[in-house]
Design a protein that fits this description.
Layout lengths: L8 E4 L2 E4 L3 E2 L15 H13 L4 E3 L8 H10 L7 E6 L1 E3 L5 E3 L3 H15 L4 E7 L15 H12 L3 E7 L3 H10 L2 E7 L8 H9 L3 E5 L11 H10 L3 H12 L12 H8 L8 H8 L1 H4 L1
Parallel strand pairs: 3-4, 4-5, 5-8, 8-9, 9-10, 10-11
Antiparallel strand pairs: 1-2, 6-7
Length: about 290
């Protein structure tokens, strides 16, 4: 069995977790909407992740919606003492499977209670505020986050949330958020190809704050690169394993949450913990964005 302890650990709130975790988005149905085609297979992936030593699962009650959290509860409750479940609020799903902002005080309060109920928890360990742009598109956009983050901080004060993070945030929003409350992690789009957050990662590392890249393998359209494939062939690994290994070596505060609905693919992802990339290979991979 893969030894994911080799990925190392990093602080997440008041806990230390292994740097290679699991993202549960893909255990919902197609398009992260509705039930999975194979509910038993989804539960098997979650149980295998725990069996392989994963102690950090990322989820949200707007996956499905509700479906992913209900499957996590069915598969893993009562939860292992060392398992950290991180969720996010700030969005909702339309009837057409669209992703919509949901950042009013009432929507955020309802979302926290939905997560608690569907996960079967009395308190949420880490809740990320997902910042949804007012205009079309999914990428970060500037704007104050004071109102929604203050609501989340109030829910924390009531004992429903232990720690707070941000998702899809700009560097200015991270700075604003840290003036309002303690931010334990930032979850943004980042991978070998998409590297807009280089400076933010380094700044967070200096302050001991976790950075959690979503879409570490490219998201709904997995990344493809002749350079990546060539490196993988030379190392006897898969391109996706190399991409994950590069992230692990990029900075010690990076926590990975690659997602999959396949036990075999899960094991393949976790095996990235055992790959050590030589300096020359890292330099070669670092050059990918220059060629993109």
């Amino acid at each position: 069995m893969t030894n994911i302890d080799r990925s190392g650990t990093f602080k997440l709130g008041s806990r230390r977790v292994k740097r290679l975790g699991y993202g549960a988005m893909q255990i919902a149905g197609p398009g992260v909407f509705g039930p999975p085609r194979d509910p038993d297979g989804a539960r098997a992936v979650l149980r295998e992740a725990i069996a392989c030593g994963v102690d950090h699962i990322d989820t949200s009650d707007f996956y499905g919606p509700h479906v992913t959290n209900q499957i996590i509860r069915e598969a893993l409750h009562p939860y292992p003492d060392d398992l950290v479940i991180v969720t996010k609020i700030g969005a909702r799903r339309g009837a057409d499977a669209s992703w919509l902002p949901a950042s009013s005080a009432q929507a955020l309060t309802d979302a926290v209670h939905d997560n608690l109920r569907n996960l079967g928890l009395d308190v949420l360990e880490v809740v990320n505020l997902r910042i949804m742009p007012a205009t079309r598109g999914h990428g970060p956009s500037e704007g104050s986050i004071e109102a929604p983050l203050t609501t989340l901080a109030e829910l924390q004060q009531k004992g429903l949330v232990r720690h707070i993070g941000l998702s899809n945030a700009t560097q200015a929003q991270v700075a604003e958020g840290r003036r309002i409350t303690d931010i334990v992690c930032v979850q943004n789009h980042y991978n070998l190809i998409h590297r807009d957050d280089e400076a933010l990662i380094d700044a967070l590392e200096r302050d001991g704050i976790a950075y959690v890249p979503f879409f570490p393998l490219g998201g709904f359209t997995p990344m493809q690169s002749s350079t990546l494939s060539s490196v993988a062939d030379r190392l006897g690994a898969t391109p996706m394993q190399v991409a994950l290994a590069w992230l692990l070596q990029r900075a010690p505060n990076i926590l990975l949450i690659p997602g999959t609905s396949s036990v075999a693919h899960l094991r393949e992802n976790l095996a990235a913990a055992e790959i050590e990339l030589p300096a020359g290979v890292i330099a070669e991979l670092d050059g990918m964005t220059k060629a993109a």
